[in-house]
């Protein structure tokens, strides 16, 4: 029996599943067991499409199809949480197991706070994530830095600080991520700033960090993060679908060091990006200048996991004058006001921007400022954002009585 807080090495009992999986096939085996036994009605995961740069979300109801989702796709930049809201009715009437990166899990929690997702029906298998690489930039990077035709690459991975590719003829080649990122390649900018590397708000947190000895490369390190996760792992072991053993204490220590190194790297990139924005009027001018390229395509809003309103305020003529391109700056101010306290730094608003506006950077910088001010961290639990705690009528009276609009004073 396992319990919340336990750490184990786990691997698929089936040899074929071990071979297909990234680290012994434990995640594939767990998902297959959950679906086969009726623990869930479906599995939402990602499979390779045309090539390693094409990540395709799939909803699976046949356990035999889960094998197609085995392995990693670092060049896939999907965010699965918004799919629950848009296409799956927020898991209102379907029990769904899903593989989640840190930002996926954060998005699920933020939508759940807004009553858009029923987390009781969601089983989250968290995947450690050091970051993802934009598919377009990945192809350019492989061609220019690796001097390899991107279409000849059949596998990629990020391991021990390197981006590693494997070609059709079996050639392996790796380049330091530091070198790649110093030259403008490598991970997406939001991934560099991310500090959600092990998604412990999921039911299980899985990865290869900390797997050492004879199990290195052949097992998955699993941290049990909830009773729901413990039940799944116990059931899979009891059924013979998964084998496990206690995690090596030295491996636990190594995993912690890897995570801490990633967190420090995130701090470094935050400092670099945020300092580059400047402060006060300088920052405002930069944001206004960059957003002046906006063509009002709404890709940022449509792909944001926090945006869920049926009628968007940016489409109300009395707030944002219609028919103007670029739109008035109020268009962007509304988004910052609505989203910034809950931004999960998923990068979707920047990834999908037709005009390459660094939307995610602006929003994330505001979110970090608000987090330092109020102490609220989005996406880690069901705690509401600070502004959601403010009762409008009470605030209106306080504003009238005091003449002060500094609402955060009430939280001191």
TrEMBL record:
Q: Which Pfam families match?
A: FrhB_FdhB_C, FrhB_FdhB_N
Listed A to Z, the keywords are: Iron, Iron-sulfur, Metal-binding, Oxidoreductase
Q: What is this protein called?
A: Formate dehydrogenase, beta subunit
4Fe-4S ferredoxin-type domain residues: 285-315, 334-364
**Top enzyme category:** oxidoreductase
Q: Which organism is it from?
A: Methanoculleus bourgensis (strain ATCC 43281 / DSM 3045 / OCM 15 / MS2) (Methanogenium bourgense)
**Required co-factors:** FAD
* GO terms for MF: iron-sulfur cluster binding; metal ion binding; oxidoreductase activity, acting on CH or CH2 groups, with an iron-sulfur protein as acceptor
Reported EC number(s) for this entry are 1.2.1.2
Iron: is it a keyword of this entry?
yes
């Amino acid at each position: 029996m396992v319990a919340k807080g336990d750490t184990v090495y786990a691997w698929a009992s089936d040899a074929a599943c071990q071979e297909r999986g990234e680290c012994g096939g434990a995640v594939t085996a767990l998902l297959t067991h959950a679906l086969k036994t009726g623990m869930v009605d479906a599995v939402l995961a990602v499979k390779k499409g045309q090539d390693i740069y094409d990540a395709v979300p799939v909803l699976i109801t046949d356990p035999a199809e889960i094998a197609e989702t085995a392995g990693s796709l670092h060049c896939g930049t999907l965010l699965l949480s918004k799919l629950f809201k848009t296409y799956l009715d927020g898991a209102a009437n379907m029990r769904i197991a899903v593989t989640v990166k840190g930002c996926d899990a954060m998005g699920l929690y933020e939508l759940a706070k807004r009553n858009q997702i029923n987390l009781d029906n969601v089983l989250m298998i968290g995947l450690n994530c050091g970051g993802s690489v934009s598919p377009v930039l990945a192809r350019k990077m492989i061609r220019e830095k690796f001097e390899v035709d991107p279409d000849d690459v059949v596998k990629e991975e990020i391991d021990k600080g390197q981006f590693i590719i494997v070609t059709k003829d079996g050639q392996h080649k790796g380049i330091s991520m530091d070198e790649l990122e110093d030259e403008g390649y490598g991970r997406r900018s939001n991934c560099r700033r991310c500090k959600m590397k092990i998604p412990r708000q999921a039911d299980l947190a899985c990865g290869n960090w900390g797997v050492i000895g004879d199990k290195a490369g052949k097992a998955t390190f699993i941290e049990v993060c909830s009773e729901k996760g413990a039940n799944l792992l116990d059931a899979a072991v009891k059924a013979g679908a998964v084998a496990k053993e206690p995690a090596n204490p030295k491996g636990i220590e190594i995993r912690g060091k890897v995570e801490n190194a990633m967190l420090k790297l995130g701090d470094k990139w935050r400092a670099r990006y945020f300092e580059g924005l400047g402060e006060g009027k300088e920052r405002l001018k930069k944001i206004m200048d960059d957003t002046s390229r906006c063509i009002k395509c709404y890709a940022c809003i449509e792909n944001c996991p926090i945006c869920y309103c049926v009628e968007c305020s940016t489409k109300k003529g009395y707030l944002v004058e219609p028919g103007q391109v670029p739109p008035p700056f109020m268009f962007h101010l509304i988004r910052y006001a609505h989203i910034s306290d809950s931004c999960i730094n998923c990068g979707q608003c920047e990834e999908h921007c037709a005009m390459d506006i660094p939307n995610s950077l602006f929003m994330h910088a505001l979110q970090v400022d608000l987090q330092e001010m109020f102490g609220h961290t989005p996406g880690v639990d069901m705690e509401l954002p600070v502004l959601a705690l403010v009762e409008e009528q009470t605030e209106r009276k306080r504003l009238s009585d005091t003449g002060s609009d500094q609402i955060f004073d009430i939280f001191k």
